[in-house]
Structure prediction request, 280 residues.
Amino acid sequence: MKSIIYKGRDITDDAIDPPPATIGLDAREAPLVELVRTAVSAGDRLIWGPDGAPYELDDAAELLAADALDHARRGDGAGAWERVHAIWLLTRSMKSDARAVLRMERAANAVARKLPAPVPPWAAELSAIEPRRDAAAAIQQQTLSRIRTMPPLPGPFIVFRPISNFIEASNVRRSRADAESLANARRCHMQTNLVADPDGAYVASRMEAELEATAKMLALKSEHARLGKWPGGFDSASRCAESRWLYETKPDGSSMTLRLSWDLAAEPGAKNAPALQFAY
Prediction:
């Protein structure tokens, strides 16, 4: 599924391939429509029961992302935006699972970048995502979960409890230090020297550039829709440390290119990742 959502290294504009028949979007359209209706109508009032959100919600978000791309491919921009809105609302309801939040935020942002104007007002909330903060929360959440689920030492092994407690206290301190290091790292820079979750740190750092890329592209698309051509001027500033956005357009505004001045690689082992350079 991620290969559908994140396909963008070679496709630098809004071209969208048809979804593979194996994911069965047509057969799932009715339940996806109902999920979108429920999520959007509930808005911020979407609350899960004492057991939390169902584990399948992450998969549902990926299906919604693929469905949004398919609607955009068929010219239904409003329907595509509605599905991304549903992903965003579902994400905001899952703050108890920081890892799932990161995955769903990334999917919503990757799809939003490829959608047409007009851009709905709620989309501005995507640029307020703080992936390093969410990754830091995931590090500490993982440590806390391990401590809570650790079985008690049986019988005579109880004498080793002080040693066990010392080890776990060290793990807690290390996780806290890792989380603080990630939260305080320079924006978009890969803080991969973490012990607890280097992969999560890498994704979070790159996501900061991906979020900014989407915000820049949506602003440019809105101007293109207003002017009928790509604008001559552009805010090249970047929140990424030591970076800026390089924007070039033809004099008549018929085409443009956009890329980050610093080339950020995707996380190690990733087959697909959201693009950071574009040509329209």
